[in-house]
Design a protein that fits this description.
Layout (H helix, E strand, L loop, with lengths): L8 E6 L7 E7 L5 E8 L8 E5 L6 E8 L7 E6 L5 E8 L2 E5 L5 E8 L6 E7 L2 E10 L4 E5 L8 H18 L7
Antiparallel strand pairs: 1-2, 1-12, 2-3, 3-4, 4-5, 5-6, 6-7, 7-8, 8-9, 9-10, 10-11, 11-12
Length: about 180
């Protein structure tokens, strides 16, 4: 297994002062080191692809998250490993919220908003009744998303980080007015 996917928690930060033609995020590990950089073309209305790169290597793509369009904004995001060209899974946004599908298209988890006494925006990925991943939006002006995996999580950390990036990009695109997550 890749060493970059072994941490218990990650932090996804939006790079507000970056290239205006792209929306960039950095993914930090629990030691506060940047492990990935993600980029989406901000000016292309046709494609909503998110490319995840190795840190400081702009030409070494690791993952591709492709938005599958339905009218204006994609409602499906398909995640693929660039090295092996294998589909990892899909995130589907529907009336009941976000569903997480495996590589065969079977639903394995669902994203639910939960109440936080501090007033922070929080979500959980749940498999049956078990929480396998939590997201906490720390800063609502420039998105900072903390991803926490329980100690014995059976959920793919690649999928957890990928869905956090999709939520981060949508929060930037809709300026936190879109509540259909």
């Amino acid at each position: 297994m890749d060493e970059r996917f072994k941490d218990k928690w990650y932090l996804v930060k939006y790079k507000f002062f970056s290239n205006p033609f792209y929306k960039d995020f950095d993914v930090y590990d629990s030691s506060n080191n940047v492990v990935f950089t993600a980029r989406m073309n901000a000016l292309n209305p046709v494609t909503r692809d998110i490319v995840v790169y190795e840190v400081n290597k702009a030409r070494s793509e690791i993952l591709l998250i492709s938005g599958k369009h339905f009218i204006r904004w994609p409602n499906n995001f398909e995640m693929t490993s660039i090295a092996t060209r294998e589909k990892i899974g899909t995130f589907r946004n529907g009336p009941a919220g976000w569903a997480v599908l495996d590589e065969y298209g079977r639903q394995v988890a669902i994203l639910k908003r939960i109440e936080d006494p501090s007033g922070a925006i929080m979500y959980q990925i749940r498999m049956d009744s078990t929480s396998v991943c939590e997201y906490r939006f720390i800063n609502i002006i420039t998105p900072v998303i903390m991803i926490d995996f329980p100690d014995e999580s059976i959920f793919s950390k690649k999928m957890g980080i990928g869905l956090a990036l999709v939520l981060g990009y949508q929060s930037v695109a809709f300026n936190y007015t879109y509540q259909g997550w």
